């Protein structure tokens, strides 16, 4: 059973997330009712893994949605400084110290800016080099956000596929149990009472 599942999981999306097995015929995955519980457990474990990846990807996407506007704002400012002529008058403006505190500043024409790199690290860059760096960081962040959104859609599709597979497997077991009862005239406990799953 596990080999059958693994063989159908070899394909992945561009970020290496495997496709969920699509159950067209239940008989491709189980040959008897004795294998149903193990296969059902494998499907549930796979759903849990996809849901875990979905939560992590959602968090990463949320962080990128905050990061992209900040990079864009910084890039716009660097471009503005880059566009100023060397002999231009000093510019009076305000800058943000924290979320609710601003201070006034006088900015003369400059060919150097300081950029926060994270982890309390700030480095000085020539304006042109800073512009190139920020353009690269912005493109990378936008691509990462696009990948996250694609992965979220992909993960939701795989979860739905496995939920459908679980329902088909469950219904197949119910059908087989009824068939056996009809053939044997037995009075076994119904599968839905035994496992506690909905018939859907």
Helix and strand arrangement:
Elements lengths: L1 H6 L28 H48 L7 E6 L5 E6 L4 E7 L2 E6 H58 L6 H5 L5
Antiparallel strand pairs: 1-2, 3-4
Helix pairs in contact: 2-3
Strand order of the largest sheet: 1-2
> Helix proportion of residues, in percent?
55-70%
Strand % is 5-15%
Number of helices: 4
Order of helices and strands: HHEEEEHH
Largest beta-sheet characterization: 2 strands, antiparallel
Could you tell me the radius of gyration in angstroms?
Answer: 29 Å
Low-confidence runs: none
How would you describe what is shown here?
The chain has 200 residues and is an alpha+beta fold. It has 4 helices and 4 strands; from the N terminus they run H-H-E-E-E-E-H-H. The strands form 2 sheets. It has a two-stranded antiparallel sheet with strand order 1-2. Helix 2 (36-83) packs antiparallel against helix 3. The longest helix has 58 residues, at 127-184. The chain is rod-shaped, with a radius of gyration of 29 Å. The model has no long low-confidence stretch (mean pLDDT 86).
